[in-house]
Amino acid sequence: MHRVEMENKDYVIGIDIGSSSVVMSVGVKPQDGEMELKGVEVVPVSEGTVKDGMVRNFMELGDAIHKAKTALEEYVGRRLNSAYVGISGKDTYCVRYEDHVFVKDKDGCCVTAEDVRALHERIDKVTTGSNDEIVARLPLRYRIDDRQYVKNPVGTFGQKLSATYLLVLISKQQIESIKRAMHKADMTLSGLCITPTTLPNVVLDEVEKEEGVAIVDLGADLTDIVVVREGRMCYFVSLPIGSSSIDNDLREFVCAPKDKVEVLKKRCLSVIAEEVSEELTAPVQMAGRAKKQILQRNIAEIIGERLKDIASVIAKALKDAKFSSKVPCGIVLTGASAYLSDIDRLLARELGMEVRLANHIYGIDEASKEMISEFSSAANIGILLYGAQRTACLTTETPLVGVKSPTQSKHEGEVKESELDLTNPPKTPIAEPKFVAPKEEVVVKPIEKVEEREKIEEDEETDSKPIDLKAKESTDIEPQSEPQNEPKKKGRIFGWLKNINSTVNTILNGNEEI
């Protein structure tokens, strides 16, 4: 790997914290056009460091970040002193909140940009009164005099301007864990974002954003769902099930280590078992043992059945959030396991809607696309684009002479860590100057996790009230029970995430070649 000579430009560093690895990337902030990617480094994290998107051990996470940072510094020839960090999981969620202001034009009752700005400033004063932090306040839609909804209220007539906002939250404990991990890696936090919220600008085209589409990011421990309609993200949820459940099923079936299981997944000809020949095999070679020949159909059936379970979770989440019929463009699939052969066809059949792979990445130039994998890199590119819309990250201009550990030296020229600004003001067509925010602080408490149940009606004529923030229902997955010996059953597994172990044992009992 050769060193890249870098000019004096604005750089953005992004860190995607996942359950199985930390991905760090460096890009050049574009003046006009697309981002140029300079380097990507993937460092595995030990099991249990990050679980279900929650940082359990910030010391080990800090070591992984420092390892990725050191490798990238040597590659690009610059010291990387700060970065934007993205994360998702159980401690990240969204709620809806509604507020209003009265139009200042008392005579003509015409809504102006000043009225919209005053409404945004009221929302900026909303706090949680709990252990969660609001990291983004996104306007979903506006209403005039509690009558019709409008996309852009400026120029309309009425006496009261209301808006429904999507508030994105994360626990303060997770913020503190991430800041400590960054400090251990000798870096400061430029900003924090929820990874799923950055995906629309990376994997969707403009038609999909406007018409309505759901992004499904299939990760190791989590499956993130993001719904985008009318050009805005209007819902997201992180479900505690992912591709690691497939790995566990295969490991139990093959009795092989994790790296061999990953090879089997990549060699799987199709996740639709009935389309795989019963005569084809996949070899598995383990140290000190004779080579095994595993039937490809058995592998396909194990993977396929678990994917059907994941599909049922996705379908329930969309139904509960009242978005099943509001994604006419279907689902865009991305994530580390989106490469599985025919996974889009299987999910389309199970969900009853169109599913396409996120095989095109937006926002970066063509040369940069050669450095990444479309499916596994979408989240990290999203974090880079998030940072590119804000301030550049701090890097030392002097090329590296040697890289020392955080405990051995401080980066020359590094600034002190400033207080993290976690507010993410929404993009609105509002011109300067800004007006002074209201003095009073609007406190919403208590605020707890909730999966939005309210149905959106575009032409709703009834009166609207501010949305209560109710307690969020648990989406935990039932723990797997011990394998049971049962006769082989045909068809899929019904119910809410029933254990696949019975199917695995049936396969074991029904194939003498394995």
Structure description:
- The chain is α+β, with helices and mostly antiparallel strands and 514 residues long.
- It is 27% helix and 23% strand.
- The protein is built from 12 helices and 20 strands.
- The chain has a 5-stranded mixed beta sheet with strand order 3-2-1-7-12, with helices on both faces. A 5-stranded mixed beta sheet has the order 15-14-13-18-19, with helices on both faces.
- α1 (58-76) packs across α3, α6 packs across α7 (258-267) and α8 packs across α9 (343-351).
- The longest helix is centred in the middle third of the chain and has 25 residues, at 296-320.
Present the secondary structure layout.
Layout: E1 11-17, E2 21-28, E3 36-44, E4 50-51, E5 54-55, H1 58-76, E6 79-80, E7 82-87, E8 92-102, H2 113-124, E9 132-144, E10 149-150, E11 160-171, H3 172-184, E12 188-194, H4 200-203, H5 206-211, E13 213-218, E14 223-229, E15 232-239, H6 244-254, H7 258-267, E16 281-284, E17 292-295, H8 296-320, E18 331-335, H9 343-351, E19 355-357, H10 366-369, H11 374-388, E20 395-396, H12 501-510
Parallel strand pairs: 1-7, 7-12, 13-18, 18-19
Antiparallel strand pairs: 1-2, 2-3, 4-5, 6-20, 8-11, 9-10, 9-11, 13-14, 14-15, 16-17
Kindly state the mean pLDDT as a whole number? 78
Biggest sheet overview: 5 strands, mixed
Proportion of residues in extended strands: 15-25%
What is the tally of helical segments? 12
Key features?
disordered C terminus, five-stranded mixed sheet, disordered N terminus, single chain, globular, alpha+beta, 12 helices, 514 residues
